Amino acid sequence: MEPFTKHTGVGVPLRRSNVDTDQIIPAVYLKRVSRTGFEDGLFAAWRSDEHFVLNQQPYRQGSVLVAGPDFGTGSSREHAVWALMNYGFRVVISSRFADIFRGNAGKQGLVAAQCEQADVELLWKLLENEPGTEVTVDLETKTVRAKDFTAGFSIDDYTRWRLLEGLDDIALTLRHADDIDAFEARRPSWKPVTTPQTT
Amino acid sequence: MTTTRGRTLAEKVWDEHTVRRGEGAEPDLLYIDLHLVHEVTSPQAFDGLRLAGRPVRRPDLTIATEDHNVPTVDIELPIADPVSRTQVDTLRRNCKEFGIRLHPMGDAEQGIVHVIGPQLGLTQPGMTVVCGDSHTSTHGAFGAMAFGIGTSEVEHVLATQTLPLRPFKTMAINVDGRLRPGVTAKDIILAVIAKIGTGGGQGYVLEYRGSAIESLSMEARMTICNMSIEAGARAGMIAPDETTFAYLKDRPHAPQGADWDAAVAAWRELRTDADAEFDAEVHLDAGTLTPFVTWGTNPGQGLPLAESVPDPERIADETERFAAEKALSYMDLEPGTPLREIAVDTVFLGSCTNGRIEDLRAAAEVLRGRRVADGVRMLVVPGSMRVRQAAEAEGLHEVFTEAGAEWRQAGCSMCLGMNPDQLKPGERSASTSNRNFEGRQGKGGRTHLVSPLVAAATAVRGTLSSPEDLD
């Protein structure tokens, strides 16, 4: 994973709450077996409407999405994160994220920045009144800036550290392989296995 | 989650699976007892393992099935959609390469991943269960801590059999009283979600408790826990009891002999202590509940069937009002229309929410001797091949086909329309599944979430109905 410290890009106002992962990428687009190429499916149904924000210039080149509360609800599909990143987004700002989406974003290096809804509203107005306004998201200082607007955002410290360092979760866990071995040695023997145990 | 006071069920399961406590901001490392795998969210995880040269740590705690993409007709033929076929073939190759048990299309044990785990007796109380699918919460009905994960986490579990996680908060959902006839687990959970909202459970494990929950069968409990994610919760749990043990006894993977006794003794400890405290509590009176349906485009936008389409003007909260306006526009509904007057084109009975044998029995009882209304298509999709087989042994398939419904093979089917079972643009369904999101069942399709009883009655009348509305 590439380290993330600071990103500046065009902000895209998405005035919708409960943007579920079926909206971010509908199920029919989930059939690829790679992690790339999902940008076509991003907001597929909404993008068929010419008035949709991503069909407008200069929002089309956006990389910081500013959405309503409860972003990423529903399906656990990590394809939602891949689709956003394949399209070019590096940050999503919302006042509330669904847990699984936030987790998936953190694994892939997409910053899910949680702001107060009042700040989201201010950003929406700014981005709508002055399309193409660039938003800077600084993970080190946990701040969002655009023109005169500045606000803090929250993100859990561990995810922030991993994103800043660009660290692979699995490698971090495998440092504790001894602990896993020890745990397995004390699991009750009656716990089920899916296959007949080989000896 | 360690404290000096009593512990909740969720805290007990968490503590028992903690491989290592995190220091400072670091998460705990949690051991995973069972990892369920399907074709959609796993290919990139297996690719990651190959790239890093990592094996699957515990193939013997992993099981795979084909469910999301599979067609529900002509399953003896190759899958027509080449992209779906590639995804299924990829799963088969990966399972072979990494030594994972797979139940492919047509196999006697194939079915929706959340139906086959419990059916095989692999889902047991006090376990940690994960799957790259948000409806993994289903398995919480057994007192397991079960939750959906993304593909990066699938890879993590395959490689390490653990997940780094921060403890969840706990919320008690107390449902007391006696359900009226015709009111089901589906109505309970739709009412819970309408009450706490699609974000109300965020960060929480929900524990469903109270006399109404205790009186439910295992299958009904699974329906409730299944939809915990629709309230935003990480997981939903129900403490195991005699109903749980009776369901598990003699299942293929249930402990046998002395192991069974040891297991039951351990399972009896899996209850929230009297002096435990939940981070939040919600109360619901089961006796006041009536059949519940959704009118909007998220599972929290629901009302009793006897009510009418709400008027967004009367919603005080601006965000919710805007969401309701968008929902009504998408659903093509007018405020004030009685929900019972909404006509549907399609009825879908199935899914990991309501695709088990009791669901099929309940719907068949309503359809017996009746006909599906003219112009309405009804799809009956069993949750697994075993469910299908059991239904046929009881003659339920004949009840469905004689009523004019289609009797299909097992899979996720129209719950998410990854296979050919989809709504056409503008079509409206009454669906026993779990999500009424825009386009969920097919681009432009409109979904009303209902119980199996409401689904069957709706099929007969052609408009949203409960069995009480039938002659």
TrEMBL record, chain A:
An annotated GO BP: L-leucine biosynthetic process
Q: Does the keyword Cytoplasm apply?
A: no
Pathway of this protein? Amino-acid biosynthesis; L-leucine biosynthesis; L-leucine from 3-methyl-2-oxobutanoate: step 2/4
Pfam families per record: Aconitase_C
List cellular component terms (GO): 3-isopropylmalate dehydratase complex
Is Ribosomal protein a UniProt keyword of this protein? no
The Aconitase A/isopropylmalate dehydratase small subunit swivel domain extends over 1-115
How would you classify this enzyme at the top EC level?
A: lyase
Q: What is its EC number?
A: 4.2.1.33
- List UniProt keywords, sorted A-Z: Amino-acid biosynthesis, Branched-chain amino acid biosynthesis, Leucine biosynthesis, Lyase
InterPro entries assigned to the protein according to its UniProt record, in alphabetical order: 3-IsopropMal_deHydase_ssu, Aconitase/3IPM_dehydase_swvl, AconitaseA/IPMdHydase_ssu_swvl, IPMI_Swivel, LeuD
> Per the record, what are the reactions this protein catalyses?
(2R,3S)-3-isopropylmalate = (2S)-2-isopropylmalate
User: Could you cite one Gene Ontology molecular function of this protein?
Assistant: 3-isopropylmalate dehydratase activity
Subunit field text: Heterodimer of LeuC and LeuD.
What is the protein's known function?
Catalyzes the isomerization between 2-isopropylmalate and 3-isopropylmalate, via the formation of 2-isopropylmaleate.
Q: Which family does it belong to?
A: Belongs to the LeuD family. LeuD type 1 subfamily.
Q: What protein name is recorded for this chain?
A: 3-isopropylmalate dehydratase small subunit
Q: Which organism is it from?
A: Prauserella shujinwangii
UniProtKB/TrEMBL annotation, chain B:
Keywords in UniProt for this one? 4Fe-4S, Amino-acid biosynthesis, Branched-chain amino acid biosynthesis, Iron, Iron-sulfur, Leucine biosynthesis, Lyase, Metal-binding
Q: In which pathway does it act?
A: Amino-acid biosynthesis; L-leucine biosynthesis; L-leucine from 3-methyl-2-oxobutanoate: step 2/4
EC numbers on record: 4.2.1.33
Annotated catalysed reactions: (2R,3S)-3-isopropylmalate = (2S)-2-isopropylmalate
* Cofactor(s) needed by this chain: [4Fe-4S] cluster
CDD domains given in the database record: IPMI (cd01583)
Q: Fetch the Pfam families from UniProt.
A: Aconitase
Q: Does the keyword Mitochondrion feature in the UniProt annotation?
A: no
Q: How is the cofactor bound?
A: Binds 1 [4Fe-4S] cluster per subunit.
Q: Which GO terms describe its molecular function?
A: 3-isopropylmalate dehydratase activity; 4 iron, 4 sulfur cluster binding; metal ion binding
**InterPro entries named in the record:** 3-IsopropMal_deHydase_lsu, Acnase/IPM_dHydase_lsu_aba_1/3, Acoase/IPM_deHydtase_lsu_aba, Aconitase_4Fe-4S_BS, Aconitase_4Fe-4S_dom, IPM_dehydratase_rel_enz, IPMI_cat
Family matches, as PROSITE patterns: ACONITASE_1 (PS00450), ACONITASE_2 (PS01244)
Per its database record, what is this protein's job? Catalyzes the isomerization between 2-isopropylmalate and 3-isopropylmalate, via the formation of 2-isopropylmaleate.
What assembly does the database describe for this protein? Heterodimer of LeuC and LeuD.
Entries under HAMAP family matching the protein: LeuC_type1 (MF_01026)
Protein name per UniProt: 3-isopropylmalate dehydratase large subunit
Q: Which organism is it from?
A: Prauserella shujinwangii
Q: Gene behind this chain?
A: leuC
